[in-house]
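Continuing the batch. This is chain 6 of the set; chains 1 through 5 are on the previous pages. Same settings as before, nothing changed between runs. Recording input and output for traceability.
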Amino acid sequence: MGLALWIACSFEVLGAARQDGSALLPERLEGVMKSRAFRGARVSALVIRERDGAVLYEQLADRPLIPASNTKVLTAVAALATFGPTFRFETGIWSAGPPDAAGNVGALYVEGAGDPAMNSEDWWRLAEELRASGVRRVSGELVLDDSALDRVRWHPSLGRTSSRAYHGPVGALTANYAAFSVTVTPGAREGDAVGVGISPPVPYLALSNRAVTGPANARRSLVVDRSAGSRGETVNVVGTVRVGDRPKVYYRSVLDPTRYAGAVLRMQLEAVGIVVEGQTRVGSRPADAHELMRFSGRSMAEIVRLFMKYSNNAVAETLVKGMGARVGPGPGSWSTGVPSMRRTLLELGLDPESFSLVDGSGLSYENRVTPRALVRALRVGSSSFRFGPELEAALPIAARDGTLEERAAGAADVVRGKTGLLNRVTALSGFAVIPAGTRLSEERRSTESERAVFSILVNGYRVGDELAMDTVDRFVAELTRSSAPSPPRAEELSSSAPERLR
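Output for chain 6:
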């Protein structure tokens, strides 16, 4: 009976390998869709073969759902199509006249064009270029002109916003995505004040630190927030940090992106040796001002990569307003930018009934998009000789970088996709490699590796976010898993034999 049992077990291993390995791709994907995590949720999905558009799997692919940050796929395609991948926003620097022999100018006017990616290093480079042009002293005011875009900082549909960095405000002059960091370090002993460091260290961000160091078993109760102050904004740190804890970094948004950008610029001007004697204010450049220089920011290709890899909401919304500014008249706004973006997407072949947008980041719950619209946008975008490579390079790589760095390990290196997450909403759309040997149907098996374009949107799930996202990751893992049957290795057969027969 022992030998017979070993032989029977061996055939069971062979049979299981053939049965599991030969499952049809649609059946495997359907199995994921029926997972416990999706029970009671609204789920729509579409997978097509990229080269010919053949449908490999679909479930309610024309049902519009809340896309969360998958909205950024449409924003990226529209922005690349509108501006082109080599376009650069230019920040203008003006004064009443050229610098005198000592490098002195009167008031200095900074005119923003809606560059959403200027960080502290970029403002330092601008300051260094200004110094190279001969400027050494600003005897008048530093005037910030942000009139290229309107001053509605957050989309009205969001309602009340938080101080979290992902709620960064929108403006024509910004620094560091309208955000800053706060590093909190416990004191050496219980009762000590905690250490707080703000970056960048600009006087515009004043610190109010009322946090203390508590015992090692104390309940963590730290709150880091910001509020409007008399000369800028106040960073409020309140609560308890446990003694012995490691330093922790908190990222927060500012309330006024224009004045914050002015503070960063002023810091960098002083860092390169340009003295600013006057105050900083928001105003307009006079019509007869003298142009000192224009600073070219990052290329649109890099901007899109930044906001897609890390799902930056402020960048996405600034680009939407920027698209509105191009059609004019008046400053760029959501009311001009969203229709402009829609027209571009329709020109690229998207069905007008397949999407309805109110913003560009996906923070709004009023957005509705179908998987078919997202797949169409990705396929049309990737096929564009003008900007297709830049679009694909902007997508996070499964298990490697961006918002997918710690996700989709089962599809590592063979999926590039845009994530999406809101309360009870998760999504993933992108490109995947289907391995050779995958059974696409009863009659067809892929003869070589080929690419698929996919989108899966999930609304209203009843489980936690982690389980919902893990199940979406299983969907792409099944999409990229080889289903070619392979015989079990010798060690697998031997491991199924009874111990006494080894």
